[in-house]
Amino acid sequence: MNSENTRLNIAVLTVSDTRTEETDSSGRYLVEAITEAGHHIVEKAIVIDDKYKLREIVSRWIADEQIQVVVSTGGTGFTGRDTTPEALSVLFDKSIEGFGELFRHISYQEIGTSTVQSRAFGGIANRTAIFCLPGSTGACKTGWNGILKEQLDSTHKPCNFVGHLTS
Fold it and tell me: How far apart are CA 81 and CA 29, in angstroms?
């Protein structure tokens, strides 16, 4: 992070019925990448894939004026337990359609047509950006390095999300 870049307060959420702090490689990667980029981790949590529990924690983070970004990992697939899109998209004031589209475009170059099973998505609620990534560490690397690192950098031109989240 250069001295002109705005430091954001970010919460990281892992959606999983089985992961623990010891086994959560995706959440750990996101925390490390976000910190390395110069941002501040305000909170990190692991929540089971239950739409009401997900809404509870993310609603609390959206209401917290100190949190500007939520990045989640997990629960975006097609299994019966994958409910992150259904749980969180209803909280959005505006959807960020391009996030999921771009994620799948980049992911296609890495995993081919299997990317159609990704329901990565994003939105903004109460001036808080929410970006939801698949649960694999590879997908988190794709989302962070291919999109979020630049879009959460206030010096990235011609535009980034920082202006929508601060002031």
Answer: 23
Say whether pLDDT at 5 is over 90: no
Q: How far apart are CA 64 and CA 116, in angstroms?
A: 34
CB–CB of 124/96 below 8 Å? yes
CATH 3.30.460.40 fits 9-165, yes or no: no
Please write the tens of the pLDDT for every residue from 98-151: 999 999 999 999 999 999 999 999 999 999 999 999 999 999 999 999 999 999
Q: In one letter, which amino acid is 114?
A: S
Q: What is the CA radius of gyration of the chain?
A: 15
Report CA 33 to chain centroid distance, whole Å: 12
Query: Which residues, at least 6 apart from 111, have a Cβ–Cβ distance to it below 8 Å?
Result: 138
State the residue for tokens 């010096």. Answer: 155
pLDDT band at 167 (very low <50, low <70, confident <90, very high): low
Query: For residue range 100-114, what is the model confidence (pLDDT) as tens digits?
Result: 999 999 999 999 999
Alpha helices in the chain, H assignment, sequence order: 25-36, 51-63, 84-88, 97-111, 137-143, 149-151, 162-165
